[in-house]
Every structure is written in C-alpha cells, then in structure tokens.
Amino acid sequence: MDPEPAPSTKARAVFVLGLAALLTGAFVGGVIPATLALLLARQVEREHYAAGGYLLGARWVRRGRRLAWAGLILALTALVVATIAGLLHFAAAPGGQDFDPGTD
C-alpha cells in the first residue's frame, strides 16, 4: 500500500523565510533569512525526491526560493546604492591639507 501524501512543514518555513528576506532586503537584513531559506530549500528538495512524490509543498518551496532571491537582490542593490552615495559624499568633501595663503 502507498502512503498518504503529507504536507511538508519545511516548505512553509522556506516560504516564510523568503518572505522575511523580501520584506527586509532593502535594509540589508534580508541576507540572513534569504540564505537560510535557500539552504532549507535545498534540504526540502532532497526530501521531496526521496519521498517519491508523497511529500507535498513543492509550490511553497519554489515561491520561497524566488522571494529569497528577490530579497538578496534588494540587499545587493541597497549596498550598491549606499556605496555610491558614500563615494559621492567622500568626493564632495574638501581633500588634502589646506595651507594659509603665503605659506611655502
């Protein structure tokens, strides 16, 4: 007899972590939940393959993985924008040593 299909609790966790990564990605805090979501998604994919189709939740894993990647892209974009803003601020500051007039 075949077992009954069972929902995967890790699949929902991947989705929730991916959603947290997307929501906090612009503040660079989304890197940690995104990384956890991607690592957990890899485990869930292995479990789904080993279960032979009797473990449900592949759709939640795909959605969570997409959200995690979107969170990582948002965090990377925030880092690039902050770096460019910092460089522009540094470039606008007066540089070098400023001597009084008449100093050799």
Short description:
The protein is 69% helix and 4% strand.
Report on the architecture of this protein.
With 104 residues, the chain is mostly helical. A two-stranded parallel sheet has the order 1-2. The chain has helices spanning 9-24, 31-51, 58-92; strands at residues 6-7, 55-56.
Strand order of the largest sheet: 1-2
Count of DSSP strands: 2
Intertermini distance: 96 Å
SSE order, as H and E?
EHHEH
Sheet bearing the most strands, described?
A: 2 strands, parallel
For this entry, give a set of tags:
104 residues, mainly alpha, two-stranded parallel sheet, 3 helices, 2 strands, 69% helix, 4% strand, rod-shaped
What is the topological layout?
Elements lengths: L5 E2 L1 H16 L6 H21 L3 E2 L1 H35 L12
Parallel strand pairs: 1-2
